[in-house]
Design a protein that fits this description.
alpha/beta; Aspartate Aminotransferase, domain 1; Aspartate Aminotransferase, domain 2; seven-stranded mixed β-sheet; four-stranded mixed β-sheet; 13 helices; globular
Length: 404
């Protein structure tokens, strides 16, 4: 660990609770002493430390960066069109941005903006319970840090007991589901096989039969998956769609979009910063660029990712391999091999976690990544790679998804 990195880590531990604001960014999730713990800025495909050390980044702000850091086209739109933060009344910008989401996801009637993906999932569940008057929620995947989401994880300390949530995978869909209010899931985590898509269609049918609100959490897949969402690509339309991350390219945003009957209901979801002007303008600009500028075509992004996956998995799949649908994949292997692999990559100025996100800036650097990966795999297989720090700790979100 460079002296400046250690200095920032030491300072963080004296002023920031738990030493880090985000569980997946805690230094313990990387190889301590090898990975930089703090960055100063990002530009294009790169992260920079305060000493201007440069790293090619395949974490993409945990999936929030889709167009590349500090994308000039988007930032110019934000700078000239969205002055200030919030106004005292409703804004024209929130209408324009909501209309942009409706035009992108054609089955959507209404939109509610929130601050991030966690709030979107939380709001969607509240809307569902208000709509059908039932309490039980069937659950699959990772949906944020609020009480009910945390209660299903190992680290549930501080959350009240008695949440009415049930593991979706423990339920027979042909059973009596009369008490179920909602089904919330990430429609695709890594698996988008034909079997998975047929399962999603089955969920759609049973939800309609039993008056259950079907919620697709596409915080990760939204704007990244081909056709810009799993639901749109496969024609499986949920009652409520949760969006976030890549919709605003690093500006904090969350949104629930869906049926008017549910979203115009009698529930309370409200926040001063739901109408944050720079964020809403960034969302409008990001969605426009992703839909209309060929440089940011989601199909092209995913094809490049899948081509890289095939090349990489031809190296030594029993050492480390890639699994996933394209722009979001996971490095898979033993804990030791993964740690050695990531350690070698960071020593060669490539930053990745166990999750791999490709974006429209990094997609031009896949040959560089492949060359370093070849070296890393050879290094591991020869036995010359050794750990230079403690084994990384898995983030909560990864553990939650691995249980499915």
């Amino acid at each position: 660990m460079s002296m400046n990195t250690k200095m920032w880590d030491d300072r963080a531990k004296q002023c920031i609770a738990q030493g880090s604001l985000t569980n997946s960014k805690r230094p313990e999730t990387d190889v301590l002493g090898v990975f930089p713990t703090h960055f100063e800025s990002g530009y294009g495909p790169y992260l920079y430390t305060d000493k201007r050390d440069r790293y090619l980044d395949f974490v993409s702000g945990l999936g929030a960066i889709n167009l590349g850091y500090a994308n000039e086209q988007l930032e110019n739109e934000v700078a000239k069109s969205a002055k200030g933060g919030c106004l005292s009344g409703n804004t024209i910008q929130e209408v324009i941005t909501a209309e942009k989401i409706k035009s992108t996801f054609h089955w959507v009637d209404r939109v509610k903006f929130v601050n991030d993906g966690t709030e979107a999932c939380m709001a969607a569940i509240r809307m569902a319970r208000a709509y059908n008057g039932k309490d039980i929620v069937l659950w699959e995947g990772y949906h944020g840090w609020y009480d009910e989401a945390t209660a299903v994880n190992d680290n549930a300390r501080g959350t009240p007991c008695g949440h009415k949530i049930v593991n979706l995978n423990a339920i027979n869909l042909d059973s009596d589901l009369n008490n179920v209010s909602a089904i919330i899931l990430e429609p695709v985590m890594l698996d988008d096989s034909r079997e998975r898509i047929e399962y999603l269609k089955r969920l759609r049918t049973r939800s309609e039969e039993k008056n259950i609100v079907l919620i697709f959490d596409e915080v990760v897949t939204g704007m990244r998956y081909p056709s810009l969402s799993v639901s749109k690509h496969w024609g499986i339309y949920p009652d409520l769609l949760c969006l976030g991350k890549a919709c605003a390219n690093g500006y904090k945003i969350g949104a629930v979009a869906g049926c008017a009957d549910i979203m115009d209901g009698d529930y309370f979801v409200s926040g001063t910063y739901f109408g944050h002007l720079p964020t809403l303008k960034a969302t409008e600009a990001c969605m426009h660029l992703t839909k209309h500028d060929n440089k940011y075509d989601a199909k092209d992004l995913n094809e490049k990712a899948l081509d890289f996956k095939e090349r990489f998995n031809g190296l030594s799949p029993y050492t480390v391999k890639l699994e996933g649908w394209g722009a979001r994949m996971n490095w898979v292997g033993t804990d030791l091999n993964l740690a050695l692999f990531r350690q070698t990559l960071i020593e060669n100025r490539i930053f990745t976690k166990n999750t791999f996100f490709l974006n429209h800036a990094t997609k031009h650097h896949l040959d560089e990544l492949f060359s370093v990966c070849q070296f890393a795999i050879k290094h591991i297989n020869s036995g010359s790679a050794v750990m230079k720090g403690p084994m990384p700790r898995k983030p909560v979100a990864q553990i939650a998804r691995e249980r499915q």
